[in-house]
Amino acid sequence: MDYSHAGNSIYCIIVEEENTSPRAVFETQAFVAFCPFAPRFTHELWVVAKKHVRNLNDLSSAEVADLAEILLKSLQAVEKVSPNYNMMVNYGPRGADFHFHIEIVPRIPHQVKAGFELGTNYAVITTSPEETAAFYKG
Prior knowledge:
This protein is an alpha+beta fold. It has one domain (4-137): HIT family, subunit A (2-Layer Sandwich), CATH 3.30.428.10. Helix content is 30%, strand content 21%. Strands 3-4-5-7-6 form a 5-stranded antiparallel beta sheet, with helices on both faces. It has a two-stranded antiparallel sheet with strand order 1-2. The longest helix has 18 residues, at 61-78. It is globular, with a radius of gyration of 15 Å. The termini are far apart. The model has no long low-confidence stretch (mean pLDDT 86).
């Protein structure tokens, strides 16, 4: 399966855009953490490799150290919202052209799906990504 768009992975394009946006929260040499432009969940945070890598095996030891650093900062920020969260590690199958990234979603207890969300399967985001990024930055 080809995940490319105009010669680049869509995630490479997203990283290029988000790296300098107000939604960027943390950055290391190898990774950027940001609140996605169109979040599926309130306070959603992504950690994405700056270079195109398919999975953890494609990272150098310095990049793994960068990942640990940015994950620690990201999880500490998310825990300001809720100590409970889901972390989805996304990597490509063997031979696939996919971009390694992690999605972190706080489990917010008072956010319960109601009629609109249940009836339409749409998410209602109560905080803009820019407001969330500013909150995470402190």
